[in-house]
């Protein structure tokens, strides 16, 4: 019996020693941590495609300056992974709204990527005062028929703002002669681009010496176009169900003042927050509407929101 106990004790001690040795081998020492880091995460140089274009206008990638600038934007936007995934998610939600309006105005479909780099497909606010997905300035909005004041700001109305962007781009294309220059003018203004073309005696965006923002502008658009169209190629992995979808809505016509949007929302089984999510152009908790203007307010179809207060 004593011999058997000693044997069992010896086996147990040996097992503990083996476990200890195994644990030491797998412990997070500097050496094996470094090996794991190398094996689990890799950063690769990207191969710039041989052909890239914007709205059918080829990018002159045989020019080494153009190639390097394109490479930069592909690298920056590929390895900013969190932002990239958000662009895929939001594009699924907002591109179906933007695309038909671009088509209506005969604007190339590539301009939807301009909205991506302008705002990240959010209702952003710029330091200069531009607002909404298309980053429209107050004067530009009003000149193109948008209502812009403290009560209603239709720069936040995606459909109407997209129409204004289309009108602006058509004028730019007519004045400057190419879609590439029209896109650059969306950032720097028609007069700004025209002046630089004249000063530098060139006719093409890719021949212009520009400031940092406008100089990167087209390259960023083309980079997002390339990445969003080739997720697997650039290492983005997701399922269809991971992407955002639009909540179906119906429109309610309003041609009077609304004194309280909280009460208004409750009539349709939603709360004020949800009303604002679908109508960000309503800037205050009431609608003045002294002129009896006709507005259409989007109301989500029943069953898409689980309200905690119910």
Automatic annotation (TrEMBL):
Alphabetical list of SUPFAM superfamilies matching this protein: Lysozyme-like
Coiled-coil zones: none
Gene3D superfamilies per the UniProt record, alphabetical: 1.10.530.10
Ranges for domain Transglycosylase SLT: 104-204
Entry similarity comment: Belongs to the transglycosylase Slt family.
Protein name: Lytic transglycosylase domain-containing protein
């Amino acid at each position: 019996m004593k011999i058997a106990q000693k044997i069992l004790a010896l086996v147990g001690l040996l097992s503990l020693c083996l476990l200890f040795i195994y644990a030491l081998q797998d412990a997070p020492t500097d050496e094996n941590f470094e090996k794991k880091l190398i094996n689990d995460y890799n950063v690769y140089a990207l191969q710039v495609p041989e052909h890239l274009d914007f709205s059918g206008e080829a990018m002159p990638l045989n020019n080494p300056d153009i190639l390097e600038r394109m490479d930069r934007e592909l690298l920056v936007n590929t390895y900013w992974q969190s932002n990239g995934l958000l662009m895929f998610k939001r594009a699924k939600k907002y591109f179906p709204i933007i695309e038909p309006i671009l088509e209506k105005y005969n604007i190339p479909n590539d301009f939807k990527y301009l909205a991506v780099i302008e705002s990240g497909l959010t209702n952003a606010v710029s330091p200069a005062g531009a607002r909404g997905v298309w980053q429209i300035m107050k004067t530009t909005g009003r000149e193109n028929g948008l209502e812009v004041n403290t009560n209603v700001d239709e720069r936040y109305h995606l459909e109407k703002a997209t129409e204004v962007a289309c009108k602006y781009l058509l004028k730019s294309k007519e004045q400057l002669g190419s879609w590439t220059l029209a896109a650059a003018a969306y950032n720097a203004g028609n007069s700004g681009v025209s002046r630089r073309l004249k000063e530098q005696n060139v006719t093409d965006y890719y021949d212009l010496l520009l400031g940092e923002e406008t100089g990167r502008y087209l390259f960023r658009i083309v980079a997002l176009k390339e990445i969003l169209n080739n997720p697997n190629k650039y290492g983005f992995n997701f399922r269809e169900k991971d992407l955002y979808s639009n909540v179906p809505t119906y429109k309610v016509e309003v041609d009077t003042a609304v004194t309280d949007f909280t009460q208004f929302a409750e009539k349709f089984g939603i709360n004020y927050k949800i009303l604002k999510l679908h109508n960000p152009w309503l800037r205050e908790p009431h609608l003045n509407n002294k002129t009896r203007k006709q507005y259409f307010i989007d109301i989500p179809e029943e069953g898409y929101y689980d309200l905690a207060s119910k």
